Amino acid sequence: MIYFAATPIGNLKDITLRVLETLKEADAVFCEDTRHTLKLLSAYDIKKPLYACHKFNESEAAEKIIALSREGKTVVIVSDAGMPVISDPGAVVAKKLNEAGEKFTVLPGACAFVSALALSAFPSDKFTFLGFLPDKAGERKRLLERYKEVRETLIFHAAPQDVDAYIKVMYEVFGSRPACAVREITKIHEEVITFDLKDGFAGEKRGEFVLLVGGAEEKENPLNALSVREHLQKYLSEGMDKKEAIKRVSRDRGVPKNEVYQEAIDL
């Protein structure tokens, strides 16, 4: 069997009993950095063969994982911290396993951006996780432009040396918005600092960061200034059928569809 296993994002005690049990039973462990994973296994007196599985060799690692699984071996895949696949190596492996019809499962656990969202106290009923931004400045800006009007909390991963550059381009695209920097989650120096994008982040740039940005403010639809009938006629004139126009007007104005339908009967 093949397992994608979550590992601690800071405090080594943040590992599940199931992950520990599976690691003890594993025939092979594939990890982002063998030196890093060796420290984790040593802390729990676990000795297993370690194989590298990082962004430069995922395809090759996937082939070896498939071969071991077909020999009846138990394989565990981990990243340096948190859940593999999520802003970490593992996505290529999962895709190849799926294509090969090889069964796999997950051992859930720590996840940095979920923990940061809880610590930030930002709206969490809906959110968009974007992970690390592209390396090139132009690509970063183009990506952020696509999310300029999104109203839910936006969440990003950031290396300490990129924090200022990220915030600078976020302010250029989003303007003044509440933001939160969360770093060193579950460690001694865990820190949660709220600020405004226009002011930048003045805190210490050490450790891995999760940056959260408030969503766009909801804008009043200018069509709501029209009468319901005029609102419907506007959509109909654009080629929308009556059923869809009723649905859109109902959503725009926040009123029941049957109220809008009464105005549409003779249109």
Short summary:
By secondary structure, this protein is an alpha/beta fold. The chain has helices spanning 17-25, 34-43, 58-70, 91-100, 112-120, 137-145, 163-174, 228-237, 242-253, 257-264; strands at 2-5, 28-31, 50-52, 75-78, 104-107, 127-131, 153-158, 178-183, 191-196, 209-213. Strands 3-2-4-1-5 form a 5-stranded parallel β-sheet, with helices on both faces. A 5-stranded mixed β-sheet has the order 6-7-10-8-9, with helices on one face.
Can you put this structure into words, describing what you see?
This protein has 267 residues and is of the alpha/beta class. Helix content is 38%, strand content 18%. It contains 10 helices and 10 strands. It has helices spanning 17-25, 34-43, 58-70, 91-100, 112-120, 137-145, 163-174, 228-237, 242-253, 257-264; strands at 2-5, 28-31, 50-52, 75-78, 104-107, 127-131, 153-158, 178-183, 191-196, 209-213. The strands form 2 sheets. The chain has a 5-stranded parallel sheet with strand order 3-2-4-1-5, sandwiched between helices. The protein has a 5-stranded mixed sheet with strand order 6-7-10-8-9, with helices on one face. α2 links the parallel β2 (28-31) and β3. α6 packs across α7 (163-174) and α8 packs across α9. It starts with a strand and ends with a helix. The model has no long low-confidence stretch (mean pLDDT 92).
